[in-house]
Amino acid sequence: AQKVTQAQTEISVVEKEDVTLDCVYETRDTTYYLFWYKQPPSGELVFLIRRNSFDEQNEISGRYSWNFQKSTSSFNFTITASQVVDSAVYFCALSERMDSNYQLIWGAGTKLIIKP
Amino acid sequence: DAGVTQSPTHLIKTRGQQVTLRCSPKSGHDTVSWYQQALGQGPQFIFQYYEEEERQRGNFPDRFSGHQFPNYSSELNVNALLLGDSALYLCASFTAGQLNNSPLHFGNGTRLTVT
After folding, report:
1. Chain A residues lying within 8 Å of B106, measured CB to CB
2. Where are any strands of DSSP class E within chain B?
3. A100 vs B96: CB contact, 8 Å cut-off?
4. Rounded-to-integer distance, Cα A76 and Cα A58, Å
5. How do residues B70-83 score in pLDDT, each as one tens digit?
6. A65 vs A57, which has greater pLDDT?
7. With an 8 Å Cβ cutoff, are A99 and B44 in contact?
């Protein structure tokens, strides 16, 4: 069965600190897709990244970086030099297919609080 | 280019009543998914519509039903409301066959409170 675990319920850091959000997943498929979404107080889920299971290359996008390790079934998200605007709930999600029948399995989310 | 739009924004209903939530997909998208997000939890997949048919369904009772119209917009209906149905209901859209080129786009959701 598929499962996504985000063990950190809430993280609070001071602005400019680096912070890492953990995500551990379970799936029996060899092909799958991992996602990170940001949910600000407005409620809309904002897409951040998608990763395919066959591409373990880490990715950096500005202050954001992602570390994908199949050996530990983890897909962690790091924000460097955090800013108050980064405050939100962050979700990790998994899908075992990317056709018209795909659906996302979500973690419980990590609430990130960046203090000025 | 309008994104996914949902209405209403907020809704308060009483136990036992029925509710209809509406979603207009992002322009160019033909598939709509609905998710329920209880407070402090991640979204849970309810169902997905494509070509006016329900294509997939999550672990939700028959009280949850939906519809997709020829213009790709969609409705989510919940009958015999329970207190536990209180949640943020999110609609997402995409174009079947183009998932590799675009992620799932979400609306701002409808906050349903059942009293």
Report:
1. 37, 44-46
2. 5-7, 10-13, 19-24, 31-37, 44-50, 53-57, 64-68, 74-78, 87-94, 105-106, 110-114
3. yes
4. 10
5. 999 999 999 999 99
6. A65
7. no
